[in-house]
User: What shape does this take?
Amino acid sequence: MEQQTVTEDHAPTSAASTMDQRPGLHVDIGQRRRAQHNEVHITLKDVTVKYGTFTAVRGVSLEVPRKEITALIGPSGCGKSTLLRTLNRMNDLVPTASVAGSVRYNGEDIYDADVDPVEVRRRIGMVFQKPNPFPKSIYDNVAFGPRLNGVKRELDDIVEKSLRRAALWDEVKDKLGQSGLSLSGGQQQRLCIARAIAVDPDVILMDEPCSALDPIATLRIEELMREMTSDYTIVIVTHNMQQAARVSDRTAFFTVDVDNPQQERSGVLVEVDDTETIFTQASDERTEAYITGRFG
Amino acid sequence: MTIDTQPRAVLDPEPQSLRETTRNARRRERFSKGMTFLLFGTVMAAIVPLVTLLTIVVVNGWPAINGEFFTQVEPLSYRDRGGGYLHGIVGTLYMTGIATLISAPLGLGAAVYLNERPGRYANIVRFFTDVMTGVPSVFVGLAVYALIVSGSGGFGLGFGTLAGAIALSIIMLPIVVRSSEEMLRLVPADLKAASYGLGARQWQTTFRVTLPAAAPGLTTGAILAVARGAGETAPLIMTALGARQVVTQLTGAPQSDVGLLMLGGFRQPFDAGIERAWAGGFTLIAIVLILSIVARAIARRSQL
Assistant: This one.
């Protein structure tokens, strides 16, 4: 695999040296300021996604560093959710969707003709906006993914490990047979995270994972996300700028652009940088306007 | 831009009162009562025939129901009292059972296809399914007679259980397809997305998420189709034909059916035969009602 680094404002470094500088858990944004980022895990080059003739998001180039949290923010309709779904080929399920440009995961283009989209989704998991556990038991929810792959023997272990990783084990260990729908909203969302973890992905995409949750449940999920960066690369779409500021290492700001010859409304990436930089000294005035609440 | 020099209060119109005139209020009240009465009337118009029908069947059929009715076959003459519809009940359950075994899997498969592979072919299938729902059931009997019972269709199966069951399954199939399709459509896209997001393939998603989530609704649809099939007589006239004793063979011997026996009984001017026909009607309605109630109960338990 070709080693790439995020180069904006930073000197190229090797993966090994950046690993040592990874921040600890529960650090605030000031302490998370970093000189370098980890090696690049996912690279988007000039990605354009269309639904039929409608261009949802246009010309996005972006690098997602390994084992860090990248937040995608921006006003409604800017294509950030569309872009997120492009990263694990969930858009394939929309018959009219088409993707141009390249999305490289570990250097491989996931849209190459001989790439199996199902394999992509097993490596790049997803957590959705609304908690959506299956109407099955808690155990069966977590075991769903491993069972797809024919795992039978170590299922108990995987379920326990995944639930522990999602900080849900202590709350559900005595009622694994109960329906996943009997849990509270925040627990359901952590169950969905456990379910995604059980497939053993290395990237987890989160599409506004806290928008249906109360502030306390949101805080738990955010803490969990920080803990998860020790093992996973996370890309999160959020409408909540404070959340992006609290939780992410890097932030990409998108907006709706009508300033093109065809007068089409489509999402574009305005800028991407360290979260702290974006929130304190954004280089584009649109970003600053959005972040300070002047639009969006 | 000119500067508005007048005080604002002068520009604002007098605030209008929220109160309405008594006359207006009365008129609205009358209109509302009239409409309520009218709509209640339409409900009654729909319920009265059903209640009347049930009452008549119960009043006439219940007195003729006894143990003998379910354990013995009909006497040779419609004049003779006693005996029962055992052979008809066996035939109805037998044929409906086989028809269910044929139409439920086929119908469910078609519904999965319509749901998972939308497009032009699915629309064609859906169109023909709708057309099939409207085909007169006696014509279904005729078609099965021509194609399967008589030699002209190449099968020459003869009258009997299987021919009757095939006719019933053709009646039941479109009902299973459309009700199952509706139920599968109700499965939230969220659940399927979650499954795909975990790396499930389409068949895995269908078998592990979509079908289990829709299971109660699918069962309901199938039971309603069974109720419809059990109540059919017309398609059996030319396929099952009728018998005077209990028939257990699948082919080679004409089969009996409660509806057919009722038809025979009512067509003769003898009290004994007519009483048994009423009892037969009571039995059929009881079977259909029980199945419908079971179906609704299962539907209510659905998690969707």
About this structure: Chain A has one domain: 15-291.
